[in-house]
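Lab notes, practical 5.
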Amino acid sequence: MTSHAMNDLSIDRGMAAALSSILFLASPLAAQDECDSAVPIAPGLTAGTNVGATTSPTTGACGDIGSDVWYSFVAPCTGRATIGFCAPGAGADFDATLAVFSGDCTMLQEIVCADDVCGMLPEVGFTAFQGQTYLIEVGGYEGAQGTFTLAVDCAALPADDCAGAVPMQLGLTTGSNVGATTSTPTGSCRQMGDDVWYVYQADCTGSATVSLCDVGASATYDATIAVFSGACGDLTELQCDDDSCGTNARVTFAVDAGASYFIAVGGFMGEQGDFTVSLSCTPGTGPWRNKARRLDPLLGAAGFYFEDKIYATHGWTTVFELENRIYDIATNTWSTGPAPMAERMELAGVECGGFFYAIGGRSHVGNLATMEIYDPVAGIWSMGPDMPTPRSSCAAVEIGGMVHVVGGRDETEPRTGNPLGEHEVYDTKSGLWSTMAPLPIPVADCYAVVAIGGQMIVFGGWDGTSVTSHTQIYDAALDQWSMGTPMPTARDQAAAGVMGFGPMAGRAVVIGGLDDTLASLDAVEVYDPVEDTWSSGPNLPLLNVGLTIPGVSTRQGIHVLGLEPGLEQVGHASLLAVEAQEVERLGTPPNALALRPGLTPPIAGKVWDPIVDHTTFAPTATLDLLLVGPATGFSLPAPFGTLLCDPSLPFLPVIRAPGRRFSVPLPVVPEVIGVRLCGQAASLDTGGLQLTNALDIVVGVS
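Output from the prediction step:
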């Protein structure tokens, strides 16, 4: 009986095994338990199980894969394939493992293998090629079994050139440049090649960052990133980077909300691989704007402004340069002018009476006392009398037709030797030098110097021990120094300028520079010499300013040139005194939104040209009228709409035929910059007079 029972038990087990075998052979699982019977699948979700599966002779190299089943996948695109259990709708109720192979079942080549990516579930990504068959092995860690839903996706390779650029959104974007070619143009940094292209329509006005360095972003190869403005076929490079963090790249650039920017992701010397790039947009960086840049690192140069042009002279690249680069503000372009006579860098430079004075600095022979004088109208350089004290890293300003040179050092290298307090003055009429009251605190690398109202103000600098936050003020009439409120941020090698117009008119702006660790600063601080107070300005997100041209004050604002982060290239940005603005206002009750902004913003010296859109507003109009007057926020309901510009104040009337642009000339005089105006249109049609919305404008310089 016992023996019989044991026999019955044995039979039961055998029957159970046989039944399991029959059920397995009758199920779809039997058709995919080995590679040569893999079940074809397409992108999307596929439900499956590995219950009852065996372990194949060839398995993935990760996670001790067992109890595997097989699928085949023909890539519908060339791009990034993603396979796994982490996507929405996918998952598994056991500790799953996953491997992907190329080749055939007699000679499998593992591409990628994963075990625990999202919890105990795997996901893999790899570069797929359209029409290529890939074999997918799904198993369990140490043979674990259960049911699953597998997700498969194939994202096409971004466009291989600008014309087909793929939209990039904020956040993370996964891609690959495998199979890409090198575009014309491509980024200028580090022999960039084999690029793929995206286009970004800016979500904010401020600064955007495209990065392979931030959390979640990476690349499997030595990647490069370049960013362009403009249109395909007429692109302007804004930034290009190779190795901001190891072999990965990061670029930050100024953006205007709604504008489009082209992003190329490539490789150093054409290296290829997969990447995940992050994109962010930070609003509120203020009125900084990228300008045309020079592609050479002309360090320690001097700069001056004359007749709407900025001149950058002398300096050093890998050698001392005899350079005279000229930037045309109107055309946003650079050209080359007559070369200086002597090599020098870290010099003092200032314009006085229509001539530029390049003084001191250092060359391969040491510190210099020589002075060159440049006539930008005639394009002629000449030598002037030597300054009494040879020095470098000094600064100069003009006060009442006199050139004041102050500070500097007696050694050639930054932050070495002794800082100098010498203050020497050149009389441009007599051609003689004289000595004036010295700096109370001698400083070197003190490029942040301005002249305001008969005073010279020296900000920061290196005092022989550390960088400082001193504000040293010289009264030229009294030949006396005093100390002002210190800067909030200690720095040397900063830029500085004076705002001529707008809300910061008459104030000094100190920009960037280096801290005690030689790290670049983006802090911008504004000094009011009347109140002796400091306030924060819009940070500089674009450049590392240090050992570059000091700030150049212009009619438009302040221009600075500095190294772009991570690059040996010189970027160029301007801080606008006042930015032109156009803001639509409907009133209460609201008028029709029909008066549209101009093709040309309200910029001093330009013609503002708004237009009435008659698509739905007064379509049978016979006349359009625009009134432009002071902006007061006026609002008064009337029978024909809401009056939004006060008709009791002086105004300029402009009449046009329906649908033609108005022409409002804005004079190029300081008094108009920053002025707030109200513009409102009215149209006369068969129903009578109808009022549009208002455009409240600020007359700007750019």
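Observations recorded by the TA: Helices lie at 2-26. The chain has a mean pLDDT of 83.
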